[in-house]
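B., you asked whether I could sanity-check this one before it goes into the benchmark set. Here's the sequence:
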Amino acid sequence: MSDTIVLKKGLNIPVKGEADLRISKAISPDIVAINPADFKGLLPRLLVKEGDKVLAGSPVLSDKKNPDILIASPVSGTVKEVVRGEKRKLLAVLIQADDDQQYLDFGVQNPDTMSAEQIKETLLKSGLWPWLVQRPYGIIANPDVTPKAIFVSGFSTAPLAPDYEFTLGGEAAFIQKGVNALAKLTEGGVHLSLCGKNFSNSPFRRMDNATMHKFEGRHPAGNVGVQISHISPIRKDETVWTVSLLGLAVIGKLLSTGRYNVRRKVAVTGPMALEPAYVDALPGTPIKSLAAFYGSLADETRFISGDILTGSNVGENGYIGYYADQVTLVREGTERELFGWIRPLRYKQFSTDRCYFSWLTPGRKYDMDTNLHGGPRAFLVNDAYYAKVLPMDIYPIYLVKACLAGDIDKMEKFGIYEVLPEDLALCEYVDPSKNNIQDIIAKGIDLMLKEMA
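And here's what the prediction gave me:
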């Protein structure tokens, strides 16, 4: 057992709308969407056509670069529509769900008696391989590469994040099976990081075949990228894989039951959520199925699949993402504020720099909206301003500027192999220059994939 790693840098954003620990409703959607954009690095090839019948677990998409990587249907039903955009770009596959769900049978299997190749084959043919994400770059893992190790974050510090003990505490046996399976895919083992403060009560603290790590600190202490940087930093020419705790549970269910079952508890959170709580839902569920949580306020609401820092703005007509276990409803900030920042008494506004007197009430939660409170401007010169919320051994402003310049040598020098956009989300939040730092990092990673492939 390793010692607790205490991170002193970071920031917890005090936003209203944490979900109550209860299941508000179970959603069985009529339509489920499969969105290729959810899968970084996937070059999708359509395997079905409109009118085709599919079972839960039937392949719907494959990767043109690696046809063994499949994306499966979360429900049984009929392919209702193939949605395309400009130049016939595949945007989504819509499936009309059956009333009585039928599952493709992959057979019950014991990972303890399976070889690494058999486990890999099972994950590929069942469509569960996309749960394995490769770093650097955050793309779907390459099955032909053996990773240095596999890393799992067993807790989240993101704003209004789901409580994993509530959502997955009852699935510890499935998670153990997932760990047993993935441990055979790498010589470096599976590394599971848990919250140090809650470690003694965690249902995941006694996992076999996993090296346990304890972390304490503010967000982004729960980000797997931050944890990797303190356990075993990624160097050039090294590859690691990551998988979420939810992904381990899904893999364990497949091995235990033979069924592709990606149903999960989704936290519906945020200042605009009426009575925030959890729902039992599938990935690809329409946001409109959550209408009870926002009522008649749709025009004033931004619908985010994920958390407010890193989630996707999907709109009321969008769908819950494949990896998402949270939906955040936040007010669209369309109004202008008289006198703006020169009004120091703004008790209802949160400031990381104590610009307002709201710092006198440290336990307060805020009704935050999407207002930027200013427009883009030149970068702040002092890197320490961004580094104070990033507990990683990199220089964030120099990395961002290298990405803007497209300078691959400097991107490598300043840590592009160690980060994903989510790791610098807080830098974007505190940035007085209002730059889209996550988007800049994402474009830098795309350049690396293009030039270094």
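One thing to flag: Residues 385 and 431 are 8 Å apart (CA to CA). Otherwise nothing jumped out at me.
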